UniProtKB/TrEMBL annotation:
The lineage of its organism: Eukaryota, Metazoa, Chordata, Craniata, Vertebrata. InterPro entries: Carn_acyl_trans, CAT-like_dom_sf, Cho/carn_acyl_trans, Cho/carn_acyl_trans_2, CPT_N. Gene3D superfamilies: 6.10.250.1760, Chloramphenicol acetyltransferase-like domain (3.30.559.10), Choline/Carnitine o-acyltransferase, domain 2 (3.30.559.70). Keywords: Acyltransferase, Fatty acid metabolism, Lipid metabolism, Membrane, Mitochondrion, Transferase, Transmembrane, Transmembrane helix, Transport. This is carnitine O-palmitoyltransferase. Pathway: Lipid metabolism; fatty acid beta-oxidation.
Length: 760
């Protein structure tokens, strides 16, 4: 109870002599310093709100406008064309101010209005410029004069150093494509996947939809697009993620891995100390908006940063019909799980972030704690891994008051969740390939109860110092988490900026008076324990059925692909098409995730990678046609894929538009056979590239051993594959493939994928 006594600032007792008051100056000092930190954060938020509110101008430009107007007035010139005099006439303080004072006040008001008008004009111009996307479709070396002028203007308006969210109000809204264009692109995408009769049937259904219900639904969708910031994102978050009642473990959550070859320290507590510190340093940069806005590589074109807002202090809370994302402004602690016990670990003391060495010291206290779990505590996390409705019912009935609510609040309000795993993972031992696969499965689902899958992300630190991450999907997409986790920040900060001592410990001093981590208390009744067992059974069946295979492809990378003048992403997608055809003898509907963050609050769009051109290339290659003809078809298929990707990025995709039309039809209570069939088509090949972003913290060329493995996700269809890949440097591409054991096995498709990569 030492920490409880330290938390009390004063105590008093009533005695016959009167009231005996005892003040704890240490506790009062802690309260003062913590409050000081809160006020500093408030002031910083106000300052940032002003700076980004006037972007692309600067606050100091107001003073320039005022001085310029005063100077022209002094020279007996009126730039306001009589407006300053009008303002002076209507001043309510005209009786109490001198004539000179009235003039100065009128000039200040006019200058402020002029300054605000100029800001709105600049922001409108920037929004118009960022709405131009034809530059993406122009060939390298053949850039039009229009695009060159556009690029110059964008650079001029973006010349001031922006904050993380400076561009948000200047980003254009996602446009609603025309029904005709979407249906034409849809029919083109399914033509190679259907026989003649099937394609004619879908063509007839699409034509009937366009003539009848489609235009009616489109009008409602355009109305929403005028009113909402983004006509897709809120429905996508709610209906695709939050309303799903099936387990989010494997089905929705995804994972990120550690370095492939390097483990900075083999001391578990030390690795946890640096990792937690790096994550809080990242959170500080997000809160202060010190991160540079993400941009399209090689350009000054900004991407939407809205998803960063809910990165920390966020939890998905279960509901009987729909879940809810809860976000708190701040949190000074993390929740830690170790050997069936839950702890609250404060990482701030007196407004100061603990040093990595102090966090290591606190983590070691948890590792050394011999206390056993309380009844029902050890597998409580299985509730977050099972079906959502039973978890919602248990939470409402048994976790809404008392000790259970207090402990659950500590987990849900934590900055993030940390698991100290007893296993050793990584590419090690006599069979490193098998161990990598086990490592992937561990991060994807663990033991089904030793992760808190509802948290925005959970960090896993293994016994041998390896680490990883499991992320909940509804609040953000993988590129946001990748920027947080991989070589862009956390891993790089851990290894290169925080570092370790020669004996593998964190750097820094220890304040030994730190109160120990707080063990969370629970009162788990038998009914909850029974539901925990049921949820664990559901989750365990799901985990046992998923197969993962991690495949570092080292024979060549994007360097050789670019020498062929092909897009590396297009090349990988065509290799996947070839591998799937060799595995299954047919083509399938293929999902590749593309981002729509060129638009405000944009998330993802689908690139339908299986096209007429890709199928023609695969069939020609498998038929043994001559090399020159196959190369020609390869280039044509790659160009088609690039065009599809660009269309998806610029708001002319297929699937989000059809999805929103389907949602509107459900609101109106009308049925569409066309939309129903489109939305029920299975994605048997679901793919995603993890981007390598803003490599500012270290040079991968000089440190090739610090290559990231990337991350992966579970299969989308029961009889399909989930494929994630990250193109690292010039000579490596890392793959993560998943599938269900009951339908297939990952290894055969990996062998075919490896051979498919030799098509060059």
């Amino acid at each position: 109870m030492a920490e409880a006594h330290q938390a009390v600032a004063f105590q008093f007792t009533i005695t016959p002599e009167g009231i005996d008051l005892h003040l704890s100056y240490q506790a009062l000092s802690q309260i003062y310093l913590s409050g000081l930190r809160s006020w500093k954060k408030r002031i910083s938020r106000i300052k940032n709100r002003i700076i980004k509110g006037v972007y692309p101008a600067s606050p100091s430009s107001w003073l320039f406008v005022v001085i310029a107007i005063l100077a022209t007035m002094y020279m007996q010139s009126d730039p306001s064309m009589g407006l300053i005099a009008k303002i002076r006439e209507h001043l309510p303080l005209s009786l109490s101010l001198s004539a000179q004072g009235q003039t100065v006040l009128s000039v200040l008001l006019f200058s402020t209005l002029l300054w605000l008008s100029l800001i709105l004009a600049l922001r409108f111009c920037l929004k118009l410029l960022l709405s131009y996307h034809r530059w993406m479709f122009e060939l390298h070396g053949r850039i039009s004069t229009k695009t060159k002028v556009w690029a110059t203007l964008v650079r001029l308006l973006s010349s001031r150093k922006p904050l993380l969210y400076s561009y948000q109000t200047s980003l254009p809204h996602l446009p609603v494509p025309s029904i005709k264009d979407t249906l034409e692109r849809y029919l083109e995408s399914v033509k190679p996947l259907l026989d003649v009769d099937g394609f004619q049937r879908m063509t007839r259904l699409a034509a009937e939809f366009e003539k009848s219900l489609g235009n009616r639904l489109q009008k409602y969708l355009k109305l929403k697009a005028l009113w909402a910031t983004n006509y897709v994102s809120d429905w996508w978050e709610e209906y695709v993620y939050l309303r799903s009642r099936s387990p989010i473990m494997v089905n929705s959550n995804y994972y990120g891995m550690d370095f492939l070859y390097v483990t900075p320290t083999s001391t578990q507590a030390a690795r946890a100390g640096n990792t937690i510190t790096a994550l809080f340093l990242y959170r500080r940069k997000v809160n202060r908006e010190e991160l540079n806005p993400s941009r399209i590589p090689g350009t000054v074109i900004p991407l939407c940063a809205a998803q960063c807002e809910r990165m920390f202090n966020t939890t998905r809370t279960p509901g009987e019909e729909t879940d809810v994302l809860q976000h708190w402004q701040d949190s000074e602690f993390v929740a830690v799980y170790h050997r069936g016990r839950y702890f609250r670990l404060w990482v701030y003391r007196a407004g100061r972030l603990l040093s990595p060495r102090e966090i290591q010291y606190q983590i070691q206290r948890i590792l050394d704690d011999p206390s056993p779990p309380s009844p029902g505590e050890d597998k409580l996390g299985a509730l977050t891994a099972g079906n959502r409705t039973p978890w919602a019912q248990m939470r409402k009935q048994f976790f809404s008051s008392g000790v259970n609510k207090r402990s659950l609040d500590c987990i849900e309000k934590a900055a993030f969740f940390v698991t100290l795993d007893d296993q050793e993972e990584g590419m090690m031992g006599e069979n490193p390939s098998v161990n990598l696969d086990r490592y992937a499965k561990s991060l994807l689902h663990g033991k089904c109860y030793d992760r808190w899958f509802d948290k925005s992300f959970s960090v896993v630190v293994y016994k041998n110092g390896k680490n990883g991450l499991n992320a909940e999907h509804s609040w953000a997409d993988a590129p946001i988490v990748a920027h947080l986790w991989e070589v862009s920040f956390t891993l790089a900060t851990d290894a290169f900026h925080l570092g370790y001592t020669a004996d593998g410990n964190c750097k820094g001093e220890i304040e030994h008076s730190l109160p120990p981590p707080q063990r969370l208390s629970w009162d788990i009744p038998l009914q909850v324990q029974m539901q925990v067992s049921e949820s664990l059974a559901v989750a365990q069946a799901l985990a046992d059925d998923v197969d993962c295979h991690v495949f570092p492809f080292r024979e060549f990378g994007k360097g050789r692909i670019k020498k062929m003048k092909l897009s590396p992403d297009s090349f990988v997608q065509l290799a996947l098409q070839l591998a799937y055809y060799r595995d299954r003898g047919t083509f399938c509907l293929t999902y590749e995730a593309s981002m729509t963050r060129l638009f405000r609050e944009g998330r993802t769009e689908t690139v339908r990678s299986s096209s007429n051109e890709s199928c023609a290339f695969v069939l020609a290659l498998e038929a043994g046609e001559d090399r020159e003809h196959c190369h020609k078809l390869l280039r044509k298929a790659a160009e088609k894929h690039q065009n599809l990707y660009r269309l998806a990025m610029t708001g002319s995709g297929i699937d989000r538009h059809l999805f929103c039309l389907y949602v509107v039809s459900k609101y109106l209570g009308v049925e569409s056979p066309f939309l129903k069939e489109v939305l029920s088509e299975p994605w048997r090949l679901s793919t995603s590239q993890t981007p390598v972003q803003q490599m500012e913290l270290f040079d991968l060329v000089n440190h090739p051993e610090f290559i990231s493995l990337g991350g992966g996700f579970g299969p989308v269809a029961d009889d399909g594959y989930g494929v994630s890949y990250i193109i690292m440097g010039e000579e490596m591409i890392n793959f993560h493939v998943s599938c269900n054991f009951r339908s297939m096995n990952c290894l055969p498709v990996f062998m075919k994928l490896h051979r498919s990569f030799l098509i060059h």
